[in-house]
Amino acid sequence: MPKPLKAALLSYLLLGAINARAELPPDYRITLLTANFPPFNMAKGGKNFARGDEVQGIATDTVREVFKRAGIDYSLTLRTPWNRVYEQTLALPDHGLLSVARNDKNSAQFKWVGPLAHYESVLLAAPGSALKFENLAQAKGYRVGAYKNGGVSQYLESQKLAVIDSLQDEENLRKLLSGRIELWATSDPVWRTYAKEEDVTELQTVLSFRSEKIYLALNKKTPDEVVDRLQKAMDEVIAEGYGGCSKTPDLCYLIRDRGTP
Q1: pTM for the full model?
Q2: Which of 5-14, 46-55, 182-191, 241-250 has the lowest mean pLDDT?
Q3: Per-residue pLDDT tens over the stretch 76-87
Q4: Helices 169-178 and 190-197: crossing angle, nearest 10°?
Q5: Rounded to whole angstroms, how far apart are CA atoms 56 and 38?
Q6: Closest of 87, 93, 133 to residue 111, by C-alpha
Q7: Which of 97, 111, 141, 258 could form a disulfide with 115 if both were Cys (CB 3.0 to 4.6 A apart)?
Q8: Is 66 left (phi over 0), alpha (psi -120 to 50) or beta?
Q9: Measured between alpha carbons, how far is 189 from 184 in angstroms, rounded to an integer?
């Protein structure tokens, strides 16, 4: 076979292999899960279950735009507790979870698309507390409540700080006020929503200790073609400055400053 013809045939076969690998079934769909994590993901009226358009939030809006641009179908369900949907996404192919902080503990457990937004990790004390810390080491010896399998809890555990996990973050607010915990390790501005709902004011910020980016976490068996298409769409969204928060302009700083992966 002449060399030019042989080279052309090889190129054709390689191109065919790439296209075959990239092709997805026509009925392909990602099952997206989340839990209440306001203002990033939340159900109308603070309910613990919602589907489709009933799921709101600035990260949710961004994910909808990303899937639209990528041309990939999906379903979206919000339910509690977070730990349940986290473990479900780990176990089941073609499942995704939003919004997840990426860290040393979970980085290898998922495939990632993002960042969607960011938040600040904080330690809070009850109203009237005089506690003020300069670093996390000072929290050792205190009863610290956190959200099971949440980014804040995972980070504290990586820092060898013992935490008392709850299945719902708002439960930690009640524990703090009743004295069952002395510090609440949570996300800012997430905690502000729960405090407002319970009409609690003057919680004390003891320490702001880490800025976390949040992502769409996909099951490890998700095809690379899906991840690549979603990340490409995500990169476009970030480059355009798409906020996903036009309804809540006071929260757009959480989107604008997300940066790149």
Answers
A1: 0.85
A2: 5-14
A3: 999 999 999 999
A4: 60
A5: 9
A6: 93
A7: 258
A8: alpha
A9: 13
Encoding tokens for residue 154?
């995972």
Single-letter amino acid, residue 30 = I
Residue 158's nearest CA partner among 131, 143, 177, 136 is 136
User: Alpha-carbon distance 98 to 82, whole Å?
Assistant: 10
Question: What is the CA angle 155-160-164, rounded to 5?
Answer: 75
Output the six-digit token pair for 194.
């729960």
pLDDT tens per residue across span 107-126 = 999 999 999 999 999 999 99
Q: Determine how β-strand 164-166 pairs with β-strand 110-125.
A: unpaired
Phi, psi of 93 (to 5 degrees): -60, 155
Are residues 72 and 229 in contact, defined by beta-carbon separation less than 8 angstroms?
A: yes
Whole-angstrom distance, CA of residue 111 vs CA of residue 78: 20
As a dihedral over the C-alpha atoms of residue 94, residue 100, residue 103, residue 106, rounded to 10 degrees, the angle is: -30
Average pLDDT rounded to a whole number, residues 146-157: 95
Distance (Å) of CA 73 to CA 55, 232, 234: 16, 16, 15
Spatial separation of the C-alpha atoms in residues 102 and 212, rounded to whole Å: 8
